[in-house]
Specification:
24% of the residues lie in helices and 32% in strands. By secondary structure, the chain is α+β, with helices and mostly antiparallel strands.
Length: 201
């Protein structure tokens, strides 16, 4: 009887974790802790600043085993405030359809604890509010567990990244110089034409 109940429990857990072979975020245990260097509300600049991240097995979670963990990915994820009216950033419980975490900042074989790897914020990271999340994967590349720097509602320990707008001071200066040059050229041509018309008369 006990073995039958165990089999039923495992079957229910499997059905909960998968929908047509897809893993649901709601089925994953929060077996990892993740710590990132930005403080609440801090604004970082793409292409200039960096983030230090450490992660490891959450020791407060009992009866967990990491024997099936083969790989870890750490990702930069959009906070809810930066997902409003942006379908291309939408959260979905089905992780194959989820677009919350689009930027991978660490992808390596599983280690139980990693202290302080540094990630330089890439130039193509858009302006938004973010948090950091990690996933651990099994040998068939399915998510097994997660950890994140924010709470379940994704409302605290958030930070901002200011993306590169595409305009630089040097471009603005060059534009101003060309505008002045064009104006002076126009005035010069006007003066020359007036003098020539006077000479003719």
């Amino acid at each position: 009887m006990r073995s039958f109940l165990l089999e039923v429990s495992l079957l229910l857990l499997f059905l909960l974790k998968t929908t047509n072979g897809d893993v649901l975020f709601s089925s994953l245990p929060r077996s990892f802790f993740v710590v990132a260097s930005p403080i609440e509300g801090q604004v970082l600049k793409a292409g200039e600043d960096n983030i230090t991240v450490s992660f490891g097995l959450n020791q407060t979670v009992t009866n967990q085993t990491d024997e099936s963990y083969k790989k870890v990915k750490v990702k930069l994820c959009y906070a809810p405030i930066s997902q409003v009216d942006r379908k291309w950033r939408k959260t979905n419980d089905n992780l194959k359809k989820d677009k919350t975490c689009q930027f991978t900042i660490y992808d390596k074989p599983y280690e139980r604890n990693v202290e302080g790897f540094k990630w330089d914020i890439e130039k193509d990271i858009p302006t938004a509010t973010y948090f950091v999340r990690s996933y651990v994967y099994n040998d068939v590349d399915e998510e097994m567990a997660y950890g994140q720097t924010t709470n379940e509602k994704k409302s605290d320990s958030l930070f901002k990244i200011q993306g590169i707008s595409g305009r630089h001071v040097s471009i603005d200066i060059a534009s101003a110089c060309f505008s002045v040059f064009a104006l002076l050229s126009l005035v010069g041509f006007f003066i020359i034409e007036k003098r020539q018309s006077k000479v003719k008369s």
